[in-house]
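User: For my dataset I need records formatted as: sequence, then structure tokens, nothing else. Please produce one.
Assistant:
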Amino acid sequence: MENTYLIKTKDLVKTYRMGGGYLIALNQVNLEFKEGEFAGLVGPSGSGKTTFLNIVGSLDSPSEGSAVVMGREVESLSHKEAAELRNRYIGFIFQTFNLLPVYTVFENVEFPLLLLGLNAAERKKKVMNALEWVQLADRAKSRPAQLSGGECQRVAIARAVVKVPSIILADEPTANLDAENSHNILRTMERLNQELRTTFVFATHDEKVIRYLRRKITLVDGKVAKDEIIEQQDIKGDNR
């Protein structure tokens, strides 16, 4: 995918039937994301942020237009092909963590690797590397109930990055965290973005997240109202 866009949407439209009419969640959205971006979709609830992530994450399909992810047209994929795209290239981080409570931290992070058919030794190496990235290697045998909210989100990040995906989609990842944990999580994701060159795309209306972004895309009523690059010197000058 060198010198190409990892994500590219053209005239993307998503509508939902509501009673006798339709709700337009996305309206002619044209966006492109390259390798290594740290970008966010911002805007009020109902502006289309999560809908966009669901489509580029191959969890949903457009009503009109196209979404090309890693060179594949999402709208033309079968269920199996969409699952393969997610398994190979995309990591997800959700505000509710979505950890499996009966499994250990190690087993939660290992889960995506089971779908890739790696042997036990390869899986162990990758899981421990991911836990070291988020500074939780010493909690590998713990279960989610034994962790704080911030630690649970770090486990969720480890699970998202364990396969070193090209793209990570993060939907309100700090919504359930206090300010200190939010900044710790954001610094962790910022570091992973720089070290792994993974493209991060957030959906958020959290000002704490917005202050870390290097590209801010404002959605209003399903349309792109503004798309701006935030210069690095502006970020470094911010106390955050």
